[in-house]
Amino acid sequence: MTTTTSAADSPSISRFHMDVGFTPNPLSRKATLGAMAAAVLAGGFLTLIAWLILKSTSLPAFGGSLVSRSLATFSIVIVVVITGILLSALVNDQRTERAIPAWRRALTYAVSYLSPAGLVIGALAIPLSATKLYLDGVAVDQGFRTQYLTRLTQTWHLSDMNYADLPAFYPAGWFWLGGRFANIMHLSGWEAFQPWALVSLAGASCMLVPVWQRISGSLAVATAIALVSTAIALVMSAQEPYAAIIALGAPAAAIITYRALMGSSFAIVGLSVYLGISASSYTLFTATIALSIVFLSGILAAFFERSWKPILSVIIIGCGSMLIAASVWAPYLLALLKGEHTSGATATHYLPIEGTQIPLPMLAASVVGILCFIGVLYLIVNFREPSVRALGLSLIIFYGWILASMSTTLAGSTLLGFRLDIVVTLILAVAGVLGLADLRLVGIHRLYPERFSPRVSRTITIALTVILMCAGIKYAQEIPNRNAHAIDLAYTETDGNGERADRYPADSGQYFAELDQEIRSHGYTPENAIVLTSENDFLSYYPYYGFQAFTSHYANPLGEFDQRNKLIEQWAEQTWDELKEPQAFLDALGRSPWRAPDVFIFRGHKDDSEGWTYNLAEDIYPNNPNVRLRGIKFNPASFDSSEFSITEIGPFVVVTRVH
């Protein structure tokens, strides 16, 4: 990891490198690739080991005790302090050209590269140690994410999370890898969600260190950026780990863009891979980052380079990233090319309060607010520097997307601009770290031209390190509290074993295992049964295919959510009239344009003459909340036939078609 590069090979931002006094820890291309792989694997493995150890303990539930909070803070302080001390010593030794013992250099690199994983363990793994669920449990959006991971644990194929015989629509990259992780660990999909989220977040966060070391040429700066970015991601996007992973790389991608557009083959390959992975995991970020790249290429081609080289680079990057993304998107795109019907998807029909406001993190009264404010000043003062300019122009594009999203509401949709809040904050925070480093290494000497003695310089470095460590601890120790509601849901939701982690009585989810047994007793398995139910948690824990998706917002367009809703409501209404006779109802099921349900799970009682309830999910955008659940009733008389088996389990009525 100590491999150095020549000045010509260095990718570092011009102001950031050895000519202005940054700690000389540059990485060659080969060393960068090796360090990235090592960081991902080591960070993920460390987190997995920590998770296994924590699962062998018996800590109390997060909401009912402060024990896990105190242990989380202790862990965070240890990580920040040890990392800060080792890096401070490294900086001082290198500035004074003092020989550094090999063991301490190796220890410093190891701790620096693994420190983001330590932050993930302290801030998330410890608070979640006494539950099997991840943040938010299976509430709201986390239910569909759990269903997706459950589906791709069951099968290697890129299958839709809900509908049978359809290719995946929602980007499957993170979920497919999570399924393989679950298979290796011999875990159910829902059980694997928590460890896979922690492991993948930790691995991606650790990889930031060698990436930024390659960019800045400084291990200290790279580690600071990685820790700051990880802390922000754990506050703003921990519930959606795959989105957080892509967001973590956005600031580096913005800076690398300049070198890629100037023709650097290494930068072109790196950016292509990043965009390809992004498109396979979270397409919104891909779209905005790609737009910023196109915008930057136009600016460079028209006003600076006055050549077609940046445009050519964009074409190469686009083709390379699309080839990678095709590994996930090809089945769905092929279905579209075959002319399959699509309708009913409303992914952009969502406008929360965050989507009506411009994110201005630089004005927040917090440690990150101060850092972002410094970042704004840094971007303005150093805007003439090409790499800094690329960072600033990318920020403008993200703000433009957010504004455009607000105006798009007039067209009955949005661009989900509020999702970019984390990217804006990360870019400004990274700029703030670079600004502080620049201030320490250049700014102080401009204010005080007389040369500092080594002792004074060392004192300044130590003082700044202590201040930054205290600021980092102040922000990081609040992460569990900032996620308190999401953590509480992980303890209060009923898990796939029918239990609550806080040991309170479970809700109706405690009967899901019996529902599964009842369905299997008739010869059905999750692979060959279609279930019509509005009990979404059941499909999150058991990989049965659903006749209808949770909501239209995450539904596959090929599944025609709106048309299925109409058919379900038509069935329900007509069971009280022309479909009252079981044979008539069976004939209606046979006329379904989609594979008809084999199993129905309703709310109600077996002998309830008023009907059995199915909750129809309807998109009511532009209202907020944007989903309404409307109960519709099926007539029990339509199922009064030897063709159906009717069983009451808890609050549910399970109707199974007899083979």
3D structure, described in words:
The structure is a single chain. Strands 2-1-3-7-6 form a five-stranded mixed sheet, with helices on one face. The chain has a two-stranded antiparallel sheet with strand order 4-5. It is globular. The chain has two domains: 29-337 and 365-492, no CATH class; 508-657, no CATH class. The longest helix has 29 residues, at 67-95. With 659 residues, the chain is mostly helical. Helix 3 packs across helix 6 (189-216), helix 4 (141-154) packs across helix 6 (189-216) and helix 7 runs antiparallel to helix 15 (421-447). A hairpin with a 7-residue loop joins strand 4 and strand 5. Helices cover 57% and strands 6% of the residues. The N and C termini lie far apart (63 Å). The protein has 22 helices and seven strands.
Question: SSE layout and pairings?
Answer:
Elements: H1 29-55, H2 67-95, H3 102-125, H4 141-154, H5 173-185, H6 189-216, H7 219-236, H8 241-248, H9 250-261, H10 265-279, H11 283-304, H12 309-337, H13 367-381, H14 386-407, H15 421-447, H16 454-476, H17 479-482, H18 484-492, H19 512-520, E1 530-533, H20 536-541, E2 545-546, H21 561-574, H22 582-590, E3 599-603, E4 612-619, E5 627-634, E6 644-649, E7 652-657
Parallel strand pairs: 1-2, 1-3
Antiparallel strand pairs: 3-7, 4-5, 6-7
